[in-house]
Design brief:
Layout lengths: L2 H6 L5 H17 L3 H6 L9 E5 L10 E7 L9 E5 L10 H7 L29 H20 L3
Parallel strand pairs: 1-2, 2-3
Amino acid sequence: MSALSRRLFPSPCPFFGVATAAIVMLSGDYASGSAAQAAGIVFLPPNGGYDSQLGGDYPPPAGVKTVSRDRQSPAAPGVYSICYFNGFQTQAEETAMWKEKHPDLLLRGQDGKPVEDGNWPGEFLLDTSTAAKRQAIFSVIAPWIRKCADDGL
């Protein structure tokens, strides 16, 4: 598994298949019709390079048509920009916020301590074990999603 794959999907996720299926179904429904245009949906460019800019923003290299950037970064001008955030674990710079404001949403090990991702020091897994916790996590990240959309990502 590549470093990017580990970053995007740090562990097997029961939601990934459902989300992927929903995206594929929506893509099929909208891809060729005017429904996509009416809904304001913009699809990824079918050709062109991809650049993961999760470590910092810079002008995309020649030939790149799609970039992914952290949710707190601006969209890259002239290319399709993907907003990256992690709804399954904390980011190192946000761990303190989760521990202070949402300690009940951190997955705990048998020792009662938050479970840290061994591949990403300082990042802790979120507890998605119940519908109520998943909803609470969503209530934290929903404003991030809205801001990404508002920022053109």
